[in-house]
Design brief:
The chain has 174 residues and is mainly α. The protein contains 8 helices and 3 strands; from the N terminus they run ββαβααααααα. Helices cover 44% and strands 4% of the residues. The chain is globular. The relative contact order is 0.09.
């Protein structure tokens, strides 16, 4: 059974970490890790010292941190290549538009995304879709209110054309 904290982060057991290392997983992409029960740092450092930069001990996330502050901090630490971090996501999506109706809809949605400071999320989703395509990973047609976003449709996150079905983007970005 996987344990998580109130932010949805996985709390590993010490044995889980050892198993992952022994199975040959690349754990260098972890920004930090929570272990329960807490691990003796000297022992853990010796065990995992051959993995550069793996352990970043923050103790547990401050309990008085709001979910919004937690999300903001983690959005600054998302793993994605620099080319995606610098990507002009608005231009990319606008360039994918074919019709004037798409341009109008996407322009409206991009304003909504920008008002909510979600351009980094769009960049990350572009990166995720590219990784899945490159590795021939199959993902679903679409789920929930996200299919109301034509921007996500153009990025390939889902396959439901919200213009065709006249779905309101406000349903997703409220």
């Amino acid at each position: 059974m996987t344990k998580t904290n109130k932010f949805g982060e996985i709390i590993f057991a010490e044995q889980d970490l050892c198993d992952l290392v022994m199975q040959g997983h690349d754990l260098t992409k972890f920004n930090g890790v929570q272990v329960d029960p807490p691990v003796d740092l000297e022992s853990a450092t010796l065990i995992l010292s051959h993995i550069p930069g793996f352990i970043k001990y923050d103790k547990y996330v401050e309990e008085n941190l709001s979910v919004e502050e937690f999300d903001h901090r983690n959005q600054q630490r998302w793993f994605m290549p620099e080319e995606y971090k610098q990507l002009d996501i608005a231009k990319l999506v606008l360039d994918l538009c074919v019709t004037p109706a798409e341009l109008q809809r996407v322009g409206h949605e991009l304003i909504l995304y920008q008002e909510r400071n979600l351009f980094n999320l769009l960049r990350y989703l572009k990166y995720l879709v590219d990784v899945m395509k490159t590795n021939r990973i199959i993902w679903g047609v679409g789920r929930g209110s996200s299919v109301a976003s034509h921007v996500l449709y153009l990025l390939g996150v889902h396959r439901v054309n919200s213009l065709f079905y006249e779905l309101d983007p406000e349903e997703f970005l409220r």
